[in-house]
Amino acid sequence: MASPFRRTAVAACRTQASHPPAFTISQNVTIITSLSSIRQSSSSSRRTTLTPKSPIRISSRTFSTSPPRSSNSKYTYGIAASFTAKDHRYNPDTNVFAFNPYNRIIARRKDKRTRPDSGQDAFFVSQIQHTPDIAVGIADGVGGWVDSGVDPADFSHGFCDYMAHAAYTHSPSESEHPFNARSLMQKGYEEICRDPSVKAGGSTACVGIAKGDGTLEVANLGDSGFVQLRLNAIHEYSEPQTHAFNTPYQLAVVPEKVLKQAAAFGGQQLCDFPKDANVSQHKLRHGDVLVFASDGVWDNLSHQDILKVVSRIMLGARAWEHSNEGVSVGKSLGNFILADDGKSGAEEIPSLQSFLAVGITGEAKAASVNTRRDGPFAREVQKYYPHENWRGGKVDDICVVVAVVCEEGK
User: Fold this and answer.
1) Cβ atoms within 10 Å of 172's Cβ, excluding its own
2) For a designed S-S bond to 286, which of 96, 121, 351, 407 qualifies (C-beta 3.0 to 4.6 A apart)?
3) At 207, is the secondary structure helix, strand, or coil?
4) Gyration radius of the chain's alpha carbons
5) Annotated Gene Ontology MF terms (predicted)?
6) Per CATH, is 3-13+74-407 categorized as 3.60.40.10?
7) What residue spans define the domains of the chain?
């Protein structure tokens, strides 16, 4: 893709600090009642103990513009991811992944050096066997496990590895249960619970299955989530699940010793299950953009912020175009989402979906270290804890998966 579009996608990255501030992780065994302790801790150190605060939800208006579609339409998806660890500088040239459906997916990665540089956040993208269906997912490791000597990334990355492999190797003839977003989450959770290398840990999860017939199913547990954008408008989005402020629903592997300690101190160790995930069904249309992301994005950018980034890139590339009737899908959308053929230069991001993933990640990273721009998390703190005087963004790991929907023949 031409270099002007690349500059558009990564412009936000240039405003971020060279080295984001370092944070320490606070003790999570007891109930945290002051937001100042959260400011001093890593923004990934969400609590694993239940507090009596009421749930906090962030929502915005949904716009619905779906017309009737033919039931025999065939859809393909251009998918890419971008990511950055909270204590690393974001590099848009290297921290990007372009999905190729022909790549073989192996079982669980044991070597941590082969993981993407996404910190405690993890993601996966996988074709489902030999079908046109695609599975995607985001998992955000719960940082509070660091206090127990546990690397939260082991759970989140292993969990995603198991889901990717389960999707890639799925065989309808050998399965006794229907294959859907929640069952895929259940399969990954069962496998990580059986993994002897993961003694403890937990994560949120957002899993989606986009099918060749243009339907999408999403299972969301916790405060990761997704948004569906359509022609310069917010069409659908997931709602976060929280037990209390900064305490999202979370899958977990909890050692017996930790359970006994929690009981002794009068606390309760959180451990939700895939059955607790919110499941939603969505209809897709040619030109839609799907964004799956961890709370490192949602705590720093609103849905409208993400729409602005996506619209700027889609309109700049003429994947969306202005017309007399408003915004429409460009005629060459299918050409923009082609997978990288391996011949592009190392300094060029090869596809439209890569531009989008980089643009959103760069914008979220810049907002997270900006002390003057209040993001969604800051506004929630100001609403419920006005005495804390929280200003600016929330430093966190960031992980984004973007899918551009393309209908064959258009």
Assistant:
1) 10
2) 407
3) strand
4) 20
5) metal ion binding; protein serine/threonine phosphatase activity
6) yes
7) 3-13+74-407
Q: What is the pLDDT of residues 242-299, one digit of tens each?
A: 999 889 999 999 887 766 666 666 666 678 999 999 999 999 999 999 999 999 999 9
Q: Cα–Cα distance between 238 and 219 in angstroms, integer?
A: 9
Rounded distance between C-alpha atoms, residue 356 and residue 272, angstroms: 32
Buried (b) or exposed (e) across 126-154, using 16+ Cβ within 10 A? Answer: bbbeeebbbbbbbbbbbbbbbebebbbbb
Stretch among 13-27, 163-177, 329-343, 380-394 having the lowest mean pLDDT: 13-27
Q: In the structure encoding, which two tokens stand for residue 191, read together? A: 């496998």
User: What does the pLDDT read at residue 81?
Assistant: 97
Q: Do residues 204 and 184 lie in contact, with contact meaning Cβ atoms separated by under 8 Å?
A: no
Query: How many Å apart are CA 159 and CA 195, to the nearest integer?
Result: 10
Residue-wise pLDDT for 190-206, tens only, equals: 999 999 999 999 999 99
Per-residue H/E/C for 314-347 = HHHCCCEEEECCEEEECCCHHHHCCCCCCCCCCC
Hey, what's the torsion of the CAs at 307, 308, 314, 317, to 10 degrees? -170
